[in-house]
Structures are given as C-alpha cells and as structure tokens.
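Re-running the complex after MR caught last week's input typo. The corrected sequence lines follow. Everything else is unchanged.
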Amino acid sequence: MFESIGAKPLVFTTPVWIIGTYDLDGKPNMMTVSWGGICCSKPPCVNICLRKATYSFAGLVEHAAFTINVPSEELAHEAEFFGRASGRTTDKLAATGLTAVRSELVDAPYLAEVPLVLECAVRHTLEIGLHTMFVGEILDIKAAEEVLDSRGIPDPKKVRPFVYSPEAKVYHGLGVNLGKAGTLYKEITRD
Amino acid sequence: MFESIGAKPLVFTTPVWIIGTYDLDGKPNMMTVSWGGICCSKPPCVNICLRKATYSFAGLVEHAAFTINVPSEELAHEAEFFGRASGRTTDKLAATGLTAVRSELVDAPYLAEVPLVLECAVRHTLEIGLHTMFVGEILDIKAAEEVLDSRGIPDPKKVRPFVYSPEAKVYHGLGVNLGKAGTLYKEITRD
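Corrected-run output:
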C-alpha cells in the first residue's frame, strides 16, 4: 500500500558535492550541494542548483565556471561544514585546513584533498524557483592517482563518495557491489 | 597527485531511477535513467535527461508528465532491463512481470512494486546536446507504508535505493551510515 507524503524535494539518493568558485574579489570559495546531476553525455555536462541567497551565487555567475569536488567519506565533516557556513562571514578554507588550487582550464578553484574533480564551464542557466540551475560542460576530470583502476578509470570503492537522503537527512557511504552494468539485465531477457 | 582523465560524463554517484511515461498510444512504458537530480526546493522539482532516440521521449513530450520510480536493490535486474530494452520492440512490463498503475495526478504511470514514487509534471525543457533535460515539478510522492519511519518519512535503509558509478559501470547499494545531516559540521566549528 502506498501512502501519499506530499510534494517535497525528496528522492533517493542525491550526491554530496563541494562546489568551487571564485567570488567577486577572486577569492576561492567552497559550498556543498546535493541538488544536481549529470545531464548530458555529448558534450559531457553536469548541473548544480543554487539559491540566489548563497554567497557562491554571484561569483559563479561572474566567472561562469565552477568545479565539482567529490569528497571521500573521510571528508564528510568538511563537506557538511562547506554547506552550512557562509563564505560571507567565514573563511571556510582556513577553518577546514583544505587547499584551493587554481584550475588551468576554467576560472574556478578546486580542492587538493579530494579524490575526484570536475572542471566545468557554465553553458546554460535556468531559473526554476528558489533554485537556479547552472549547466556546466565538463572540460576535464582530475582524479587522484591512487583511486584509478588498472584501466585508468576512477574506482568508486577507492574514491569512497557518499550520498545524501533528503528529508531523512542522513548520509551513507557506498555499500554492497550489486554487479557490473550490462550484466544484470540478462537475467530478465533469459526468462 | 592528480591525473587528468579527460572530459567525460563521469561523476560519483548518479541515481538509478525508472521513469514511467505513456507512449503516443497511451501505453505505459518504463525506462531507466541515471542522468538527473533534484533541482529546486520551491516548487519541488527534479530533472531527468533523455536522448531523443529513446522510445520514451515522444510520449514524455506529448503527455508532459513522468513518474520517477525508485527501485530497491531487489529490483536491480529489472531496473537495468528497463534501461537496456526498448519499448519499441519489447513489452517491458510483461517481460518483468511488474505492474503499471495510472497516476491520478499526472498523465503518467508508476510501478506498483517500487518503494518510492514521484509524480511529476513537466515545467521546463532544455536542449543540451545528445540529451534533453525535462524539469518536472513534484506534485506528490508516494511511499510504500513499510518504508516509512515513525515520523512518516521514507527511511533510506528500508527503501534500499542503489546508485550507479559511470565509466566504472558498477552499481552499489547504501553502506555505512555516516551520520545525521546537521551534526557532522559541528566538529569543524568546534576547532
């Protein structure tokens, strides 16, 4: 039996990404978002959604660029801090001790300490409501050497990303490996 | 040390959602996507991104509505099947034995067997490239009674959603509980 629980911004699961931008003075700022996702394969694009009230907003518009920094489980406290404190009143990089690096591809900083970084140039902006969507073209991905598998592809179990469940308000790491894509569906077609 | 791995539609992690639509003849169709995410809190909106070549595309445009069906781990095989087979040549509901139910709120069907359903009306369409984005307003969420916690909120450990890691091409369930949102960041501010 289904129960109606109303209209909410709720789905399982959402990502936890630290967004790197420069502010209007060119100072690096980091904020954490869970509203976003990959949105195109060619050109490779990803979107993130921000409220206008955030400190990152104006800088993102001005520089038309952002990075997505995928934190490992070890950085869960820092990731949440970047989402709670405001760059208006707090030097979040100093408070966390993490390091901003200037991207050579886009006008945005990334974090030296995360295992996976996407460098993105804004291609579309869409006003939706409380949130504005920025669609960024992924110009390059940088991965820490130690998280690459033998094919040079980031291994999720080495990256150790974590996810957020809205309303339930809880974070989970990755669990059991359910199998390789392209193998599971065969069980159905074999029927 | 970071290694540049090029421009790809890769980020960790992406969701696995079964999208319910009616086709141009009003027949229910299901397809699976991993390109999408929540994109606004007010009004609550979520986006999904489809290639024009998919069978679901024309019906989604015509009916301006879709459902997001969040499969539990138990439905991983069916979810992948919905993403691999085409409604053009296969009756995917018959092949999986799953049941389409007509939404009373939007012109789209949902699956009776999933723990969590979002009923969405298309509000924006954005051409990005190979993929077209549909932003849907979430008009209601339906949750199976047995996945609700004592507050009436879906419990992710009962829903048991799973995630996809692009390029690595692997699915993972939810793992360790890293803590409640709103508690982790305090460790940083206490410094």
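None of the earlier attempt is carried over here. Chain B has one domain: 14-189. The helical segments of chain B are 56-63, 76-84, 92-96, 156-159, 186-189.
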